[in-house]
Write a sequence for this structure.
């Protein structure tokens, strides 16, 4: 059965946090969920851009309930500041969609010295999720959705080079980060199941979507233009995350993406993932590495 926004019940009374929601898939995710009545917290690195995105949605949906908080996932200090604000303003979180991410920038370091893609895509989200965990746990049947990518199939967790201290390939680092997000989603669900919690952890990937994620790489920008006939809109790319977050039939530990022949376009359906993504021993080691690097220990 095809699944669409028509299948989404009213979300009035639900509070959903979307990271990286000022542009691309995150913006589409926030807009579509707001159209169903959810109160959306737009967690954005740039406050001004976040406010502009909020204004764009409000122009289309005047009654949308939207607030912007500053969240720079490349800074653990910013993560903690954002969590302090969220804890003051919210009494629950029904869904957290870990959408924000970087794709294939030149070698850069976060404020804490981590390789930028691993530091932002993986460590930033790990720390943020752990620190807002009490709000999630107090909300019955809440969900966390980790945005991965088809690139995870090429990913390997290189514990000897997590921070690119022994060489850097932007593609390998990106694939590693997206595999890392997926493995953390699965490991989180294993831990939630052991704890008997109603909170669920799922993952999603957007397929081939026309967004500005490739802005750091000239080759990818050209490829993005050439591949337009074989990609989908950001609204379509948002659907796997949305289904994972709000479809009552979706369950913890599942992975959603486009259901077309190449899994790059099409309606959101349950997907399989690589064998490496299901390696529980590596996932546990990655979780412990994230705890050590961020200083955030949870579950």
């Amino acid at each position: 059965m095809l699944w669409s926004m028509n299948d989404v019940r009213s979300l009035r009374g639900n509070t959903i946090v979307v990271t990286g929601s000022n542009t691309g898939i995150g913006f589409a995710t926030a807009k579509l969920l707001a159209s169903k009545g959810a109160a959306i917290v737009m967690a954005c690195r740039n406050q001004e851009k976040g406010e502009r995105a909020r204004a764009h949605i409000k122009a289309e949906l005047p009654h949308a309930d939207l607030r912007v908080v500053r969240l720079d996932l490349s800074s653990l200090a910013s993560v903690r500041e954002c969590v302090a604000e969220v804890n003051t303003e919210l009494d629950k979180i029904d869904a957290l969609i870990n959408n924000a991410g970087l794709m294939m920038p030149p070698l850069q370091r976060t404020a804490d010295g981590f390789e930028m893609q691993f530091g932002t895509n993986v460590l930033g989200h790990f720390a943020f999720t752990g620190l807002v965990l009490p709000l999630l746990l107090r909300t019955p049947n809440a969900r966390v959705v980790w945005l991965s990518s088809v690139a995870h199939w090429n990913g390997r967790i290189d514990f000897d080079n997590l921070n690119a201290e022994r060489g850097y390939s932007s593609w390998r680092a990106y694939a590693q980060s997206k595999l890392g997000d997926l493995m953390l989603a699965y490991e989180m669900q294993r831990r939630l199941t052991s704890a008997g919690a109603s909170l669920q952890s799922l993952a999603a990937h957007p397929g081939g979507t026309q967004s500005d994620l490739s802005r750091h790489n000239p080759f990818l920008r050209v490829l993005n233009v050439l591949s337009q006939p074989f990609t989908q809109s950001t609204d379509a790319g948002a659907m796997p995350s949305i289904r994972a977050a709000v479809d009552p039939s979706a369950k913890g530990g599942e992975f959603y993406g486009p259901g077309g022949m190449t899994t790059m376009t099409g309606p959101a359906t349950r997907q399989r993932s690589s064998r490496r993504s299901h390696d529980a021993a590596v996932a546990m080691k990655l979780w412990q590495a994230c705890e050590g690097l961020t200083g955030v220990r949870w579950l």
Summary: Residues 170-195 form the longest helix (26 residues). The two ends are 35 Å apart (CA to CA). The mean pLDDT is 94. The chain has nine helices and eight strands.
